[in-house]
């Protein structure tokens, strides 16, 4: 192979790799941003559940699920 062809192939491979890394970085940033948006809601609901605990079994299960989601997203304690 001639040298210009090798350089072209290397440039294409490096460009593809760079685009892939940029796409993955953007997706991870967007996912973290979406998780932070949910945190506000989950913390507010958890705070309300602690101030006024649920009286029914389904209400307690709901509160447990909200707390589980809050911890899963890494949100702060209410």
Explain what this protein looks like in three dimensions.
By secondary structure, the protein is mostly helical. It has one domain. It has two helices and no strands. Helix 1 runs antiparallel to helix 2. The chain is rod-shaped, with a radius of gyration of 23 Å. The termini are far apart. The mean pLDDT is 90.
Supply the key terms.
single chain, 78 residues, mainly alpha
Kindly estimate the percentage of residues that lie in beta strands according to DSSP.
under 5%
Mean of pLDDT = 90
Structural shape: rod-shaped
Number of strands: 0
Helix content: over 70%
End-to-end C-alpha gap:
65 Å
Find the structural class using helix and strand composition.
mainly alpha
Give the low-pLDDT segments. Answer: none
Secondary-structure element pattern, one letter each: HH
Estimated radius of gyration? 23 Å
**Number of continuous helical runs:** 2
Domain module count? 1
Tell me about the largest β-sheet: none
What is the structure about, briefly put?
With 78 residues, the protein is mainly α. It has helices at 3-51, 57-72. Helix 1 (3-51) runs antiparallel to helix 2 (57-72).
Summarize the SSE layout with pairings:
Layout: H1 3-51, H2 57-72
């Amino acid at each position: 192979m001639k040298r210009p062809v090798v350089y072209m192939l290397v440039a294409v491979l490096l460009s593809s790799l760079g685009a892939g890394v940029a796409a993955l970085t953007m997706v991870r940033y967007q996912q973290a941003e979406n998780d932070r948006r949910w945190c506000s809601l989950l913390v507010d609901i958890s705070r309300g559940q602690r101030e006024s605990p649920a009286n029914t079994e389904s209400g307690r299960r709901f509160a447990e699920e909200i707390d589980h989601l809050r911890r899963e997203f890494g949100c702060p304690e209410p």
